[in-house]
Amino acid sequence: MAKRRLSRQQKNRIQAAQQAFSASHDQKPGLVVSHRGGRILVELDATETIECKIKSNLGTIVCGDRVTIETTAQSEHRVMGILARDNLLQRVDGFGQVRAVAANISQLFVCLAVSPRPNLFLLDQYLLSAEQQNIDAIILLNKIDLAADERDPFGLQQIYRPLGYRIVATSATSGAGMNEFESLLIDQVSVLSGVSGVGKSSLTSWLLPDEKIKIAQISAANAEGRHTTRASRLYHLPSGGDLIDTPGVRGFSPFVDRDTPLALGFREIRDRGEHCRFHNCLHRNEPSCAVIAAVESGEMSVSRYQNYLKMLESGAGC
Ligand SMILES: Nc1nc2c(ncn2[C@@H]2O[C@H](COP(=O)(O)OP(=O)(O)OP(=O)(O)O)[C@@H](O)[C@H]2O)c(=O)[nH]1
Ligand SMILES: [Mg+2]
Ligand SMILES: [Zn+2]
């Protein structure tokens, strides 16, 4: 389309309108620290957090979003725009809908606990999802105080350390491992994710004792959690860095991009798959498959391979 030339009069009129807009509207940058229902909390600076409405058609806004705020003459705050995101962590809800969890994050803690017992299938889904979304994942095993043997109660170190994943064992009750956890948060924007009851809010509260953070009342030592946290919340840590506590969602599924080959989200399968006879090998029962050979020789974890097959069968990214 040919560029329309504006007359001097039109230009003046636009300029006047822009000046009038700036005068009547107060545009400020802000950081979304919480969003639940239609209620969005935006932090303007260290001392001011305001509740905002959203301009229609703006799309999803999540914790960690950098936004621009307009304040109307009636002192009503409104989110007018979302600045470009570095990344967006997504999940799939119990109804199969893709939902945004947090934006502009630098690392994801996949939180497990000694009780409720870790589900390694869910862990592998999380790791796959993080790998696909190019987000660094760290495995956190909380409630280590409840383990009879604190060294490696579920074989996580054995399976995941050779793949390059860091595993940190913590206890928000005894304080074990908390210094290591805290050091990993410095200058990062971290998200705590995991099923209800593993202690995400307890860990957050340990780091921020002055914040009023809701945690489950009765010890969920052997029971599943009660969905105590209802909305994600971003906190600033005294040691530098931000931490986002998220609700443990029932029927949670990490987001899996079905257009990307599943094997790309399993580090060891991705690497070994390069040595398969067929370039499009799915590592199920194909001849001369380097992945199957590695599982048979004990070089690769059987549980990881089984979880890969389970995801493949469910139709994720072939
Ligand atoms: N023994 C033990 N109990 C813990 C530990 N951390 C948390 N808990 C208990 O586990 C229960 C659940 O803790 P929360 O912090 O509410 O769990 P959450 O992951 O935030 O749960 P949702 O908000 O529902 O997703 C509470 O009763 C805590 O007291 C821990 O390290 N050791
Ligand atoms: Mg919680
Ligand atoms: Zn193969």
Short description, anyone?
The protein is α/β, with parallel strands linked by helices and 318 residues long. The chain has helices at residues 8-24, 120-132, 156-160, 178-185, 200-207, 267-272, 290-296, 302-313; strands spanning 26-36, 39-45, 48-54, 66-71, 77-82, 88-92, 98-103, 107-113, 136-142, 166-169, 189-193, 233-236, 242-245, 253-254.
Question: What descriptive keywords fit this protein?
Answer:
14 strands, binds zinc ion, 3 domains, binds magnesium ion, 318 residues, five-stranded mixed β-barrel, OB fold (Dihydrolipoamide Acetyltransferase, E2P), 24% helix, single chain, Ribonucleotide Reductase Protein R1, domain 1, alpha/beta, Rossmann fold, six-stranded mixed β-sheet, binds guanosine-5'-triphosphate
Q: How many H/I helical runs?
A: 8
CATH architecture of the largest domain: 3-Layer(aba) Sandwich
How many domains? The number is 3
N-to-C order of helices and strands: HEEEEEEEEHEHEHEHEEEHHH
Gross geometry: globular
